Amino acid sequence: MSRFLSSRFSDLEAYTPGEQFQNMKFVKLNTNESPYPPSPGVLKLLAGGEAEKLNLYPDPEGKFLRDKLAALYGVNPENVILGNGSDELLGFAFLAFGPDGGVLFPDVSYGFYPVYARVFGVDAKAAPLCEDFSIDPADYMNAGRMVVIANPNAPTGLTLSLADIEKIVVSNPDHVVLIDEAYVDFGAESAVALTKKYENLLVVHTYSKARSMAGARLGYAIGSAELIADLNRIRYSFNPYNINRLTLAAGACAIDENDYYRDNCRRVAETREQTKKSLRELGFTVTDSKANFLLAKPPVMDGEAYYLELKRRGVLVRHFSTPRVKDWVRITVGSPEQMETLLRETRDILA
Ligand SMILES: *Cc1c(COP(=O)(O)O)cnc(C)c1O
Fold it and tell me: 86 CA distance to ligand 1 centroid (A)?
């Protein structure tokens, strides 16, 4: 730390990304990326003409892509904002809607929520998950502050029903309810349609998981035109050209090839169910995840020891030191071959 850093941040605990080794070969099941490449059109586009225009700034409104997303979800373009990853939009939302009343989110959820709260000076309250890691909707009724819930939740993979989400939105008419749907395409119900009915609902999506584009950094949020205008006020005060030209073009192309991604999501969901069954047969406790990862507690050994043993054998999963999940690991659902390797090494470790 230099002596110039503001004292506000001297004890800031930053977000810790999953390990991203650039030179080593791992079976990489630690950061919930897709095992499948971007669709053919996206790959072709990136090899072609758009790169020649990198001397020019991108469209700060990302109009072409927003139009496509609006058509896909049956909303208007003014109901859509693009972010440099959904992380950026989560940050904008905490900054825009959090400071006055504070924010409420589950005690076990996406690790970035408490970091955004801290860095933007938002008072954060955590509602404990139930014993079985499910979310009790009652904990979020009349919250008196902004509410942030990931659905499916991370790293549990458990979902809330649309009816429960609607109850939470209705009971908090004076505060924004943000539903982070990073994993929705792997088996949960989306709340996007409810954004037409409720001005306080904001739904956040990412291209990083279901759309095989974690490296492109692209996310979007859908909500009332007023909420989106608020987020744009922050965005234009921070980084108007937040989405680069190549990513804008790739993002639009991916919408045209939606079927490719839907098939991949179905494949991942199938692999997830098979892997869950195999892990349970080996004595693991595994949550009923509807996401592209499994939260699993190994028999006999603790989560960290299992994570380290796997890593030694070239398989990378995610271990969190958070007290409630420290006995567990989060395993990204990769290709069937990758999961075979995971299971083979796991049998060996347990033997
Ligand atoms: C991966 C993830 C994100 C971030 O996605 P990016 O678009 O890559 O920034 C947001 N929320 C949750 C719950 C996630 O797991």
Answer: 6
CB of 84 shorter than 6 A to ligand 1: no
| Letter string b/e over residues 255-269, b meaning 16 or more CB atoms within 10 A of that residue's CB | beeeebbeebbebbb
- Both tokens assigned to 150: 């990931």
Q: Are strands 124-127 and 177-180 parallel, antiparallel or unpaired?
A: unpaired
What is the rounded CA–CA span in Å between residue 287 and residue 296? Answer: 7
pLDDT tens, position by position, 159-192:
999 999 999 999 999 999 999 999 999 999 999 9
Q: 0.90 exceeded by the pTM?
A: yes
**In terms of residues, how long is the chain?**
351
DSSP per position, 222-273: EE-HHHHHHHHHHHHTT-TT-S-HHHHHHHHHHHHTHHHHHHHHHHHHHHHH
Cβ–ligand 1 distance for 230 under 6 Å, the answer no
Residue 23 reports pLDDT greater than 80: no
275 CB-side CA count, 13 A: 34
- Evaluate: CB of 141 within 6 angstroms of ligand 1: no
- Write the CB contacts of 273 (distance below 8 Å, at least 6 apart in sequence): none
Q: Does residue 327 have a pLDDT over 80?
A: yes
Q: How much is the pLDDT for 49?
A: 75
Q: What is the pLDDT of residue 51?
A: 83
3-class secondary structure, 103: strand
pLDDT at 65 over 80: yes
Are residues 234 and 240 in contact, defined by beta-carbon separation less than 8 angstroms? no
Is cis: bond before 152, omega within 30 of 0? Answer: yes
- Between the CA of 116 and the centroid of ligand 1 the distance, in Å, is 13
The average pLDDT across 267-274 equals: 98
Report how far ligand 1's centroid is from the alpha carbon of 153 (Å): 11
d(CA 190, CA 178): 12
202, 178 contact by CB (below 8 A): yes
Count CB-CB contacts under 10 A for residue 56.
8
